[in-house]
Structure formats: C-alpha cells, structure tokens
Design goal:
This protein has about 525 residues and is an alpha+beta fold. It is built from 12 helices and 28 strands. The chain has a 4-stranded antiparallel sheet, with no helix packed on it. A 4-stranded antiparallel sheet has the order 2-3-4-5, with no helix packed on it. It has a 4-stranded antiparallel sheet with strand order 6-7-8-9, with no helix packed on it. The radius of gyration is 35 Å and the shape is elongated. The chain starts with a helix and ends with a helix.
Amino acid sequence: HIELIKMSTGEYQKLALKRFPKSAGGLTPEARYWKKFKFPILMSHYAPITSINFNPVSPHEFAVTSSTRVQIYNPNTNKVSKNLSRFRDVVYSGSFRKDGRLLATGGEEKIVRVIDASNKTVLREFDGHEKAVHVTKFSPNLTHVLSASDDCTVRCWDIPSSEELSVMTGHEDHIRCGVAYSTDVWATGSYDHTVRIWDIRTQEAIHVLDHGAPVEDLIVYPGGGIVVSAGGNYVKVWDILGGGRQLELLECHQKTVTALAFDFERSRLFTASLDHHVKIFSSNTYKSIHSMKYPAPILSLGVSPNNTHIVTGMSDGMLSIRHRVVNMEEVSNNKKQNRNYSINHWKYFLRGKDDDPSPGNFVVEKKKRKKLQAYDVHLKKFEYRKSLDAALNASKEPLVVISLLEELIRRKALEIALCGRDEETLQPIIQFIKNQISVPRYSSTLIKVMHIILDIYGSIIGQSRRVDKILRKIRFTINKELMFQMQLNRTLGTLDLILAANSSSFVDTDTSAVTENPTTTTTTSNNSELMDVQ
C-alpha cells in the first residue's frame, strides 16, 4: 500500500537492478593502481644503501648513497648518469636542494660537503663535527644547511659565507634523521628515543617527543603541523601545533621501520622495514591499503615527485627500482593540475571544473532529475505488458530483464504481462529464455517464467513454426545442461569414493560415501527444476 501511495503521488521508485555477490579476491582501485608499478630493476652495490633522495626538479633524478660514493640515476633510463666518488670514507645522506642545483652529503669523514649537481664540483666543505655526519638537509631558504652527527649535535651552516651559524645540543645519543621544514624550525630524531623540534633563532628545543624506541626516520606534512616518526616496529604521528600530542600509532611491521616517504599529493604514507616490506597507508585514515615485498631488509626508500618510481635500497647492497608507464592523458592532466592562475584571471574561478575523479574517490554530485527508461515509464503506469516489451526490445543487458521479471513476480503481475500475446509478441520472451536459461544466476527466475508460459500457451503449442522451433532449442539446451549436471554428479561421486578410500582406517567408509556434498545437493535441486520444465 505504501508503494502504491508513493506512485500515486509521483514518488515513483525506479526499478532496482538485482545485485549478485561480488567474487572474492577482487582488487580494489587502490591495489590496481599500485600493481601498475611493475618492471622491477635490481642493481647491485658494494655496500648497504643508506639513502635515496629524488631531485624535486624534472626529470627527477635520484641520488643513491652507498659506501664511498653517491650515484645519480636518470629516471628515464634507470641508469647511472653521474658518479660522485671523491670521498675517502663512507658517505651518508646525499640530498638535493629544492631547486635541484646543489647536493649535500655527510659521512665518516666528519665533513659536510655542498656539491654542484651538474658538474660534480665541491663548492663548500664544512668542518666542525667530531663524529660521523649522518644527516644533511637544505633549509627552505636555499642558503642554509642542516647537519646532524653521532656527536649528538645539530648544526646550521651558511653557504654564502661558509660559516657555522648555530650549534644545538640536547640529544644524548646518535642522531640519524632530520628535516628542515621551515627556515627557523627544524626536527631531528635520535637513538635516545626522542624527536626534538628546534627553533634556530633561540637554539633551543621547542618540543621533545618520546617515541619510545631509537628513531630511524622523520617526515613532515606540508605546513609543518604534523610530524611522523619511525623507530622500532611502529610509526607515530605527532600534532606539533597541538602541543606535541600523539595522533596515531601504526604498529604495522614485524621488525624495525627504517624509512618513510610521501607520494606527490601527500595522500599516501610509505613505510619501509627490515621485515622486507614496504607498506602504503592512507594519510587521512592511516589504514593500510597496499604492501610490497622485497628480497632483503630495506634501509632506504624514495618515491618520485611525479609518482612514477618507487626506489628502495637494501642491506645487501641491492637497489630496486619499480616504475609504471604513464600515458599522455595522465601527463596532460598533471600539467592542468600544476597550472596556477592568479586571482585576477577568470580561469582561477573555474579550477577543477573539468577534472575527472580518480577510481575510488567519493564524488558529491548535484541532484538531477533523471529521465526514466521506457520500461520504468510503463511500470509506473501499471502497464506491465508494455513494460516487459520495452525491456526486451530496448535493453541489451539481461540483468534489466531479469530484474523486471522478478519485480513482476513480486507484484504478482507476471501472468498479466505474459497472457494475451500472439506469435510476434511471444517470440522475444522465449528467445530471451533460450539465450539465458543456461546462466546459473538467471536460471531459477527463467524456470518460473517458463512454467507460466507453458501453463498459459500449452494448449496451442504446435500452431506456430517459429515458436515451436525456439521451444525445441530450449529443450535441447535443457537436455544438454542435464547431461552436464549428470556428469558432474558422477565426478563428485567418484571424488567422494577416492577421499573415503584415503581416509583414516578408523573412519567408516560407508558413512563417508553417504555424506552429502553441498554442491551435489544444489545440483540435484537444479536438475529437478530443469526436468520439470522439460
């Protein structure tokens, strides 16, 4: 009655298509995207790879630090384009400046070097640390260099004047990671289990965060409000603007987490570990969405700014390069997204109008009045016969016809839609039954329809050659399906006997033979229905 009231007031509910259970093991859009990173290239180095850093400027070369050299790879050929080997001892933390022109390195020599990335010339050497320098990063202002060492100090160097500007102390153990996410605020992580946020102007720590394990890597969200620290077998997310409170704890690995990285949009967080895995998390929900396995413990990780390369360095000296092929349409979309218009330009107010959503995105759409299909128009007017004819003639999807037939059965109007037909109007229905009756998900509904057709038109069968020809084909299809089901039953019976013979000696073989298989029961019921139709 409620449905009739809605129809009478114009609140007609469109025909809902029948939904079937999804097949198990289907890949999500996110998993399909990361599966595109194929073609893994493995390259051997002499020693463990301690650092991987991508050039922010296109074509996004990446620097690989291992042993006494830093190698710069071309992302298009995945081969070494430059080799920096003027080091007397092990080198660490080769990292590019924001403009891609300079490269900073540390090492066991206790010297911080600034190198021209184009011609490999050493421009500056800063000597002041007393032990190995494991962290070198450029400040966003392009003129300062952050360095951190095993001597538990953090130092700021000025490139134009070659002078040491400040020395910050406070850590009680080796410092192995750091990031300069603004000109005046830096963050460092140490083996003393703490993350310290430094104010360069006062040379003091603003916040001291207890990670609970030796800190291996740090990464900062854009804006500097949230810091992510890795150490032990877990990752912690900290709210710096909120007073240094802990937001999330990700216990995601079985062994120590050694490296962190973001994708270009900062929407995905990568974690690498000694358990041979790289895991990918959503930056919004911090839920794991994908995982990659590698042949050795991972020490370093890098993701290209254009999301085409995932590079990992392992403890056995192997370098793994995974890349995906980018089509021209994606390149053009990236150019559109990176194009910035001033607020005075009229296109500024049309940003995002023509952007297509990515697979899996939630799209908020404006409610539009959708035009009803022909079968819905007739169904709304209770014209069941015309509705069925419209679905058979217009729709190419069998699911639409099946959904309409089930709706007519639910309304107890199927006989009304089928009766009073002549040779021309009856033929499309039985032709559809002939084509789809062997499909398992449609067979139960079509068997009911065929029963009603035989009850209505059984007395006049034989008066139309075309209808009789289709009915004979239906009988042939049913006989073929029955033979297949009989062979399947024999096969299942044989398997039951084999399994019973191989079972333990104390199991009664007669009981095993009598045990009913669920598939056999279902098949038998289907056989009985098909035999009734036949």
